[in-house]
Amino acid sequence: QVQLVESGGGLVQPGGSLRLSCAASTNIFMFNDMGWYRQAPGNQRELVASINVGGITNYADSVKDRFTISRDGASNTVALQMNTMKPEDTAIYFCYARTLRHYDWGQGTQVTVSS
Q1: How far is 18 from 89, CA to CA, in rounded Å?
Q2: How far is residue 66 from each of residues 29, 38, 105, measured CA to CA in Å?
């Protein structure tokens, strides 16, 4: 059973920055891809950013040029740097790891953007 442990959520003012981190219990290069989804109240879970085993990244249009996903094989972590944050970024953020059709999920971390 893969464990994914997220950290770094919290409250930030509009225009501010937060960095989320996801630590995996195994070698992250075993996964086809990893990344982050988010879910706001009343909304469906949406993909925010992903990085595949080859290092190719993908972003939702709403976060392009503001968020950056990265990984560190030495520590088996994936990070999401979030800059120029907006109130509409408020959501629970979930780390995931995909192997073929199987997804493992973190417990989620709350991100709130508010003045």
Answers
A1: 11
A2: 25, 15, 24
> What pLDDT is stored for residue 1 in this prediction?
85
What span, in angstroms and rounded, lies between the C-alpha atoms of 68 and 57?
Answer: 9
Those residues whose C-beta lies under 8 Å from the C-beta of residue 74, and which sit 6 or more positions away, are none
Relative to beta strand 109-113, strand 10-12 is parallel
Contact indicator for 82, 66 with CB cutoff of 8 Å: yes
Handedness of CA 66, 69, 50, 106 (dihedral sign): negative
Separation of alpha carbons 30 and 40, rounded Å: 30
- State the 10-residue block means of pLDDT for the chain, 115 residues long: 95 98 97 97 95 97 98 97 98 97 96 97
pLDDT in the model for residue 27: 95
Rounded to whole angstroms, the Cα distance separating 70 from 44 reads 24
